[in-house]
Amino acid sequence: xxxxxxxxxxxxxxxxxxxxxxxxxxxxxxxxxxxxxxxxxxxxxxxxxxxxxxxxxxxxxxxxxxxxxxxxxxxxxxxxxxxxxxxxxxxxxxxxxxxxxxxxxxxxxxxxxxxxxxxxxxxxxxxxxxxxxxxxxxxxxxxxxxxxxxxxxxxxxxxxxxxxxxxxxxxxxxxxxxxxxxxxxxxxxxxxxxxxxxxxxxxxxxxxxxxxxxxxxxxxxxxxxxxxxxxxxxxxxxxxxxxxxxxxxxxxxxxxxxxxxxxxxxxxxxxxxxxxxxxxxxxxxxxxxxxxxxxxxxxxxxxxxxxxxxxxxxxxxxxxxxxxxxxxxxxxxxxxxxxxxxxxxxxxxxxx
Length: 352
Fold this sequence. Notes:
It is a single chain. It contains eleven helices and eight strands. The protein is of the alpha+beta class. The protein folds into three domains: 3-135, Rna Polymerase Sigma Factor, Chain: A (Orthogonal Bundle); 189-241; 243-351, 2-Layer Sandwich (Beta-Lactamase), CATH 3.30.450.20. The strands form two sheets. It has a five-stranded antiparallel beta sheet, sandwiched between helices. Strands 1-2-3 form a three-stranded antiparallel beta sheet, with helices on both faces. The longest helix has 55 residues, at 188-242. The N and C termini lie far apart (114 Å).
């Protein structure tokens, strides 16, 4: 059953909420019908109220739920409007075939075929031959005065076109509908352009969603790499600080100390505050210019070096024999030089 027909049936059973829903759905169309007939906005608004009041009283008599509930309600509205025309004598006093107390009369089989109701029944038979959508459109134009519909149409050759159609009911001098006019405007290009726009927007959204997924995946991968790098740096820091070999991190450009471990401080006799930001040269730790030049050549030629025999001056122990090793590493996104000094002084003395 049509949803609006169900509402009329519910109203006939005393459900007042159904009246509110019907009013919300159809009050605008009823107002248009009344305004078309009365040419008075004030009276049209009164007809809307009178129509739904009459509907509330007559809903229980709606015994043909298989027929259009809108036609039932429009007939009530038309009766209300024609009654007002009669009272003010601005229109013929009687629209024969439409002036009925019970709106169901419009769908009855009249005993007198000479009345104008014959026209109505003829229209009903024609409407019955149409599909549901076309019948609904014609009935709304018939009782509402005008109907606009935008839809696709199929041509004989199988092609289709999109058109906006305005269907207007024509009435005779007594207000009885006796025909229709239809104006159709071809909107195929505009419709296809709109559909292409919607399709392109859909594709764009899909591509954007795909890009966002890739960005999320890449971000997640980078986050994992960053977490792994931080974890690796933490492990390096732990090994560096706790290692038994005197070790230091220095800048590539001018050999300034960035960090030293506890073994380095014990070996050299300096504190960390005395060392950081300075170089071996500034601390006068080179025993000779030859040793300093040898380390410089090894760094320039090889980058990394192993077990280079040198001598360093310490604060507590004086001149010490060392084996120096160095390697360039990446730490926190910056390249630095890791140097390690193995004290072999006692070993050499033993060998001697």
